[in-house]
Amino acid sequence: MIYQTSTFTFENVEQGARRFAGLEPGYIYTRIGNPNMTELQERMASLENGEDAVSACSGMAAISTALLSILKQGDHIVASNMLYGCTYDLISQMLPDFGIEASFVDASDTNALRATMRPNTKALYIETPANPTMKIIDIRAAADISHEYGAYLVVDNTFMTPYLQRPLELGADIVVHSATKYLGGHGDLVSGVIVGPEHLTSKMKKRYLKDLGGIPSPFDIWLLARGIKTLGVRMDRHCQNAMLVAEFLVNCPQVATVYYPGLPSHPQHELAKKQMDGFGGMVSFDLKGGLDAGCTLMNNVRMISLAVSLGSVDSLIEHPASMTHACVPQVERHAAGLTDGLVRLSVGIEDVEDIISDLKQALDNIK
Ligand SMILES: Cc1ncc(COP(=O)(O)O)c(C=O)c1O
Predict the structure, then answer these.
(1) How far is the CA of 188 from the centre of ligand 1 (A)?
(2) Is 2 among the domain residues?
(3) Most buried pick, 96, 103, 115, 220, via CB within 10 A?
(4) Given a cut of 90, is residue 195 above it in pLDDT?
(5) What percent of the chain lies above the pLDDT cut of 90?
(6) Do residue 160 and residue 216 come from a single domain?
(7) Which residues are CB-neighbours of 14 under 8 A, at least 6 positions away?
């Protein structure tokens, strides 16, 4: 059922007052809560093995709400140097405007990470695997370092979903998701989720999400809840297809390097096996012909769509340096291993033979 309503009626004025005062449970107004949100939150908390969850209107609403609720003026945040472009922008540009200092580090290097933490560090923010380099960060090690400094570890689990990785079980404090991606799964909604301890989520719901206002529509939440019903089946197929696509790419003469944690050649393959239950559906690669070759490939795919976003049942290909990560300065991108020619492929659940033959015919256009 979709509770497609902006408001909820009270039986009388006294009941309305009691609900506002928090003396009686019950819905008031959809920005403050809606049965579709409640259902989704319970489901996500259970899947991530967390105490509670908060649903937001996008991944960025989830990330900004989570960070603004744990940081204040004078605090410091340490973030991994390879993040989704808008997250990087939020942390590097917007938070400092509010008096919150930010430092970026290769969080897979525990010595460098420890050296970046400060007494006023209140949050460590990571994505693992990182979008789009597929670098893996040891979540348990990051949690230990974070807690030594009394900081919260926040993990973006978008690429994995709780089906493949549960950061809270590895010591993280807060998990954020762009539910637009694998959780929704069908490329037909924009949504976000935060999972964490009740003392933080209740603050987010009662204050930050309520006042910042980034709540999802009941219809999108209903679509999301429906998508989650097939999460496991889809993720199994994404993982199988991505492994076969990665192996195909490794053997292509036009391809220089393939970044996929399932490949034994991935520098953190062992860590990936330890902390993930599968390697996911995202594959990135560099072509020997660099950016020009990448453009030829992306301009010649037929079944695969040239589009940003990821985690849909449909395969999507994109160019991070000019699209999703264009707001990260080139020197920062290069330092984090994101080359100008890197191509990111979100491997869908189509017949893998169709995906591979489309890539093959597109690669054959490279001179
Ligand atoms: C890893 C990651 N986190 C967060 C986001 C932001 O999510 P949304 O587009 O739902 O705001 C994205 C979007 O691509 C992403 O890839």
Answers:
(1) 14
(2) no
(3) 220
(4) yes
(5) 100
(6) yes
(7) none
Residue reference for tokens 């597109």: 362
Cα–ligand 1 centroid distance for 133 (angstroms)? 15
Which of 228, 249, 269 is a domain's end point?
A: 228
Per-residue pLDDT reduced to its tens digit, 115-168: 999 999 999 999 999 999 999 999 999 999 999 999 999 999 999 999 999 999
Closest atom of ligand 1 to 324 CA is: 14
What is the number of the ligand 1 atom nearest to the C-alpha of 309?
Answer: 14
Domains contained in the chain, number: 2
pLDDT at 1 over 90: yes
Q: pLDDT (tens digit, 9 = 90+) per residue, 79-129? A: 999 999 999 999 999 999 999 999 999 999 999 999 999 999 999 999 999
88/219 same-domain check: yes
Of 213, 228, 243, the domain-final residue: 228
Cβ atoms of 8 and 26 within 8 Å: the answer is yes
Protein residue whose Cα sits closest to atom 6 of ligand 1: 59
Residue 96 lies in a domain: yes
User: 199 and 264: one domain?
Assistant: no
> Which ligand 1 atom sits nearest the alpha carbon of residue 190?
10
The pLDDT, as a whole number, for residue 167 is: 98
CATH number for the domain that contains residue 298: 3.90.1150.10
Check whether residue 220 and residue 251 sit in a common domain.
Answer: no
Whole-number Å distance, alpha carbon 84 to ligand 1 midpoint, is 7
CA dist 6 and 203 (Å) reads 22
Mean pLDDT of the chain: 97
Q: Is residue 359, in this structure, part of any structural domain at all?
A: yes
pLDDT tens profile 277-311? 999 999 999 999 999 999 999 999 999 999 999 99
- For residue 154, the domain's CATH number is 3.40.640.10
- pLDDT tops 90 at residue 367: no
Pocket test for ligand 1, best of 55, 83, 131 (most atoms within 8 A of CB): 131
Q: Is position 8 within any domain?
A: no
Catalytic residue set:
31, 84, 156, 181
Domain limits for position 275: 231-363
Which residue has the CA at smallest separation from atom 15 of ligand 1? 84
Our mutation pick for probing the ligand 1 site, out of 127, 181, 182, 284, counting the most ligand atoms within 8 A of Cβ, is 181
Give me ligand 1 centre to Cα 49, in Å.
22
